[in-house]
Amino acid sequence: MKKRILALASFCFVGFSATAQEVKYEEYDLDNGMHVILHQDNSAPVVTTSVMYHVGAKDENPERTGFAHFFEHLLFEGTENIERGEWFTIVSSNGGSNNANTTDDRTYYYEVFPSNNVELGLWMESERLLHPIINQIGVDTQNEVVKEEKRLRVDNAPYGKFIENVKKNIFKKHPYRWTTIGTMAHLDAATLEEFQAFNKKFYIPNNAVLVVAGDIDVPAVKKMIQDYFGPIPRGEEITRTIIKEDPITTPIKATAYDSNIQIPAIVAAYRTPSMKEKEAYVLDMLSSYLSDGKTSKLYKKLVDEKKMALQVGAFNNSQEDYGTYIVYGLPLGDVKLEDITTEIDEEILKVQNELISERDFQKLQNKFENQFVNSNSGVEGIASSLSTYYMLYGNTSLINKEIDIYRSITRQDIQNVAKKYLNANQRLLLEYLPKEKDQ
């Protein structure tokens, strides 16, 4: 009886939390094609203004990789009405903060201001869109900034190139095969006219979603949006072709070297479906089951019990066109990489041949329920989620309904997806090794 009461109490609490966190929003289009989403939350005097552009590394010329990430930096240089170098000063002097980030699929800019500065945030984002100054001095300055970022985060970072090596081996045709930060030689070779053409093509209102979330007066904000963004001309329509990869039917074996590491790693990577497919959600759960926390199957077996690995993990990198499911391990002492692979494969085989336990399944459901509730706990996160669900999933309502997808997943689904995608003949097996001094 006590267990039943506790279970009922837990169910009621989770259900209440999920309901309490429901995000209300309004969305509409401007005449120029810009999509607008408004979320009002007057619980705290802050507001997030953000613009997401449907342009990422996959939209680049293969001979000019790194452009989308470069623009993440370049469009802070200044505009016709914001002097060069003044962007961050304006934001900070008005009590705000801002940032931007780029993926293979999109670029995202945002500001967080006290709510009495919502108009300032809207004006700045409209300036970035309507009046950017793209000149040689800005390109040269940001070229050095990006090079330093690459040196810090990739070239000199331990295991900094393992994703790069996964991507170029598992994708042969699709532009996911190169990294978001791109190739510095491509940026060096690019002309000013090429940067200006990239901006003209992709940084247009009909390739963007504007989100304003927080302590706002909706009618007043709508007028501001019309005043600042309405007059911006619509750009030419962008034609996109999704490049299809041939299925992987035989194992791909590759070796990469890294002078910044002393411990090798084994990486098994599988090509998986788009983030929009239910199977991608199932793979999220599977990666959590295998490697999330010290009680997960891979950690408990390889690190805790057998003491074969220093570190082990699995994660599902879902993207708009394809995903990549990655499992990796770092051996402890003299343990061989192939022994780590064998142990990992045994755990995957168990999932393929047996349903996971009811207890483990319930833990997964609780974990993803909790993540869903937390993801909607602040306006900054809500703004990002609203943008992402609209632009990459084509379904803004997922901000409230995505948890229903996770709730619909069964133990059989987990087994079926493991059988379908995590097979030895469908993967890349990458040995990531310390680089010898004479290499």
Automatic annotation (TrEMBL):
This protein's UniProt keywords: Hydrolase, Metalloprotease, Protease, Signal, Zinc
Signal peptide: 1-20
Top-rank taxon, per record: Bacteria
Domain Peptidase M16 N-terminal: 36-183
Peptidase M16 C-terminal domain: residues covered: 190-367
Family statement drawn from the similarity comment of this UniProt entry: Belongs to the peptidase M16 family.
Designated name of the protein: M16 family metallopeptidase
